Amino acid sequence: MKRFKFRLQKVLDFKETEKKERAQQLAEENQRLLSLEERMEAILEEQEVFGGLGDAVMTIEELCLTGDYKQRLQDELEQQRGHILDAAKAVDEAREAYIEKSKETESLEAVKRRRKVEHDEESKRKAKKQVDEMVVQRHRFTKNEGGQ
C-alpha cells in the first residue's frame, strides 16, 4: 500500500512558520502596549503625589519648579497616550495578521485531512479489489483442478 504524502506539505510548513512569526509579533506588540500603559500609570501616580503639594507652604522658586514639573508630567502624559494609541493600533494589526495566517494554515490542514481520508478510502478499495481478485483466481484454480 502506498504511503500518504501531502503534496502541499511544504506550503503548509511555510504557513505554520509564518503563523508562529505572527504570534511572536503579536506577543511583542502586546508586551510593548503593556509597558507603555505601566509607564502611563507611573506618570499618573507622580501627578497625584505632586497634586497633594498644593497645600504646602513653598517659596516662589519651589512653586515655579513644581509648576514646571507638573507641566512636564502633563506633557509626558499626553505623549504617552499617543504612544498607547499607536501601540494599540499595532496590536490590532498584529492580531489581524495572526488571524489571517491562522485561517490560511487551518484551511490547508483541512485540505490535508480531507486528502488523507480520500487516500485511506482509496487504499481500502484497492485492497478489497485485490482480495476479490485473489478469491476469483483461487476459485478458478480450484475449479480447473477439480475438472481434470
Please give a handful of descriptors for the protein shown:
single chain, 148 residues, mainly alpha
What is this structure's SSE topology?
Blueprint (H helix, E strand, L loop, with lengths): L8 H43 L8 H88 L1
Helix pairs in contact: 1-2
Could you describe the 3D structure shown?
With 148 residues, the protein is mostly helical. It has a single domain, classed as Helix Hairpins (Orthogonal Bundle). The chain is 89% helix and 0% strand. The chain contains 2 helices and no strands. Helix 1 runs antiparallel to helix 2.
CATH architecture verdict = Orthogonal Bundle
CATH class: Mainly Alpha
- Label the structural class: mainly alpha
Task: Count up the domains.
Answer: 1
Based on CA inertia axes, which overall geometry fits? Answer: rod-shaped
Outline the low-pLDDT stretches.
none
H and E string: HH
What would a concise description of this structure say?
The chain is 89% helix and 0% strand. The protein is mostly helical and 148 residues long.
